[in-house]
Amino acid sequence: MREVRYFNGNATARIGRIEVTTLLDGWLSLDGGAMYGVVPKTLWEQQLPADARNRVRMAMRPLLVRTPGHTLVIESGIGQAIAPELHDRYGIDRAGPTLDELVRALGVDPASVDTVACTHLHWDHAGGLCRLENGAYRPTFPDATYVAQKGEWEIATRPTNLHKASYAPDSLLPLAERGRLRLVEGDAEIVPGVRFEFTNGHTENHAVIWLEDQGQSGCFLGDLVPTASHVPLAWISAYDINAGGSWRAREALYPKLVQRNARVFFYHEPEYPVGRVTKDHNRYRAILDT
Ligand SMILES: [Zn+2]
Fold first, then answer.
1. Interval between CA 184 and ligand 1 midpoint (Å)
2. Ligand 1 mean position to 278 CA, how many Å?
3. Any idea where the domains of the chain sit in the sequence?
4. 111 exposed, middle or buried (CB, 10 Å; 0-12, 13-18, 19+)?
């Protein structure tokens, strides 16, 4: 039996008793040079082709995670956080379903989602935590607990000029106003079998999310490693607030991914978002399940 199954573009994988399904919120096109930092176009365009405006097209793939005791969503897509006038600038291409509708389309009752967690709160990851109802943002899963890093929340909801373009605070604040927020600091359990590992790098308070059960491991890499092509150590996005921090976090994380033979999930991967990280000839690379 194949380890990763694809159905309607969604991938499903198992980690022990944990079932993980990738969802598709939509598409985003960002400047290819910015996505690959110091890597020259002669190299990166072999991995992801640039469009006529030098942009690379990437997916947003939140996860639906079912553990023996909990139903979680990890990351939330852009949702309705970005004004339609800005969609052309960022190449945002969304068909429209909100995150709860994506969950329902898989035959899962959105009311059963009890926990939502994000690696960081940039609008392409956290924009769908709330959705618009009669012109006002409301938590997309009204009864769920939303788990985030405390430092990330503080920056996201009071962004300075340095951070302003990356966060959509109006789409986040209702989580606190409605008492749905749980803030943690650093490495922390989200629910049994699901935990944050703090990394820094892409944002000051970015954390990847491990999924662990019965001796098997998975890791959702957030924007520490946005696509499979970003696995090589130097392939760090210029959007990262601390590129040195990203490098060090990857150097610390990759040996664990290899040693545990962890299944990895790439949020922005355009086609096949599930794979593993391997090391050969002293270089790390991704092998995708296709
Ligand atoms: Zn992102």
1. 21
2. 23
3. 4-288
4. middle
